[in-house]
Amino acid sequence: MLTAVATALGLSNVVPFGQGGQKIVASADFGDQPAVVKIVLVPAGPNGRVVVERAHREVDLLAAVDSPTVVKVLTDAVEIDDPVEVVCWVEERLDGDDLDRHFDRQWTEDEAWLLAEDLASALSACHREEVVHRDLSPRNIRRLGSGRYVLMDPGLARHLARTALTGIGQPGSYGWMSPEHVPGGRAVPASDVFSAGVLLYCALTSTLPVPYGHDDSDYYRRLAQEDAPSVMQTRPDISPELTNLVDTCLKRQPARRYLDGEELQTAVRRFRGGCA
């Protein structure tokens, strides 16, 4: 299978280093450029077409967004075999590691502002293209060696102007969801803003504002009905500007949050300027 992928995409030195669900991730050389290849295994049966369409959508969404804070796709999605057994494509290789490796301590305010800047930039770029990420979690954020952050893996993203794919269900990662992720809800740009607030809250406190206790119904109830605590309760030392930013992101009602990445980005610039 790896040989077929390498041939189809013009790769050499393909070496798998991770697998989750139906997706294999490998390092590779794309010409003289180091790259990452994403390989989606397509199941037999009617659900296979959904998997293929979702893979194409992920690549289309990445191709539509042009931002240094969103991972770049380098090829189209390529289908292998008939019927299709694999869909694969190439992305830029990012150094550093996933954000979840950095939540073992409480961050300084300057560190949190940097994350806020890059999250806002990435979401602004996505929302301009009417793309809602829907799974803004630490495993989908890369912390580069430079200390900057890049958004990855929009496999569960939704284009607001397109019909949702059947068979995918309600996406998201427990602990990092918004109130709109509760079954029956509909994710909007403000939902990504809420999840950005969760990431910032966790960075500052090493805890989640709405923890997941392995009881889905209880978690969804608290998301829908209870207000998240102010970050000030755990971190009274941070500035009023950063407290305001995080608390606004975590408002239970979408209309009381920043409505999209652009509004969040404007707030980050205004608040950080105010506490400089």
Tell me the fraction of residues in β-strands, as a range.
Answer: 15-25%
CATH topology of the largest domain: Transferase(Phosphotransferase), domain 1
Number of domains: 2
How widely separated are the two ends? Answer: 53 Å
Account of the protein in words:
Mean pLDDT is 90; it is low at 165-170. The chain is built from seven helices and ten strands. It has two domains: 2-92, Phosphorylase Kinase, domain 1, CATH 3.30.200; 97-274, Transferase(Phosphotransferase) domain 1 (Transferase(Phosphotransferase), domain 1, Orthogonal Bundle). With 276 residues, it is of the alpha+beta class. The strands form three sheets. Strands 1-2-3-5-4 form a five-stranded antiparallel sheet, with helices on both faces. Strands 6-8-9 form a three-stranded antiparallel sheet.
Write the layout of secondary structure elements.
Blueprint: H1 2-9, E1 11-20, E2 23-30, E3 33-41, H2 47-64, E4 78-80, E5 86-92, E6 97-98, H3 109-128, E7 131-132, E8 141-143, E9 149-151, E10 158-159, H4 189-205, H5 216-225, H6 240-249, H7 261-274
Antiparallel strand pairs: 1-2, 2-3, 3-5, 4-5, 6-8, 7-10, 8-9
